[in-house]
Design a protein that fits this description.
This protein is an alpha/beta fold. The chain has helices at 17-28, 89-102; strands at 10-13, 31-37, 47-51, 58-62, 82-85, 110-111, 115-121, 127-133. The protein has a 4-stranded mixed sheet with strand order 1-4-3-2, covered by helices on one side.
Length: 137
């Protein structure tokens, strides 16, 4: 079996593409790439591709024409959260200041023993973490 080379992209389903694209641009630094794509014929799954220049991570923001309209719930089977790595504790504090400046609610820096992290949720409640693994001692 071959190995993975990294994450190709993360795709999320949202209730309001415009609000979500704006949030991901302001809060996490993703930029839209091109125009909204209509998606596969018959599926009705428009999407906006977004790119994070510093990390190379690609985010696909989907707003299906037929959707439930409910908020994300990490207690349901499926995705719990997405965690993005940052360099160190100082970077976490820099992110916290950035989110504070935008008025975006987030957790304090939390200690998980081997790492520290901040939790934040997008407009649909999709949970994200900014995660700094502690150096090995």
């Amino acid at each position: 079996m071959s190995t993975f080379t990294g994450i190709a992209h993360i795709a999320i389903v949202v209730r309001d593409m415009g609000a979500s694209v704006d949030w991901y641009r302001r809060a996490l630094g993703f930029e839209p790439v091109g125009e909204v794509r209509p998606g596969t014929v018959g599926i009705g799954h428009p999407r906006q591709i977004m790119h994070h220049a510093d990390s190379g991570l690609v985010l696909a923001v989907h707003e299906p024409l037929e959707r439930s309209g409910d908020m994300f719930d990490p207690s349901r089977t499926g995705l719990d959260h997405v965690s993005l790595g940052v360099s160190d504790r100082a970077a976490l504090h820099s992110w916290a200041r950035h989110l504070d400046d935008l008025g975006v609610p987030h957790s304090p820096v939390r200690d998980a023993g081997h790492a520290e992290f901040i939790s934040v949720a997008d407009p649909d409640g999709i949970a994200w973490e900014l995660w700094a693994t502690k150096p090995r001692q």
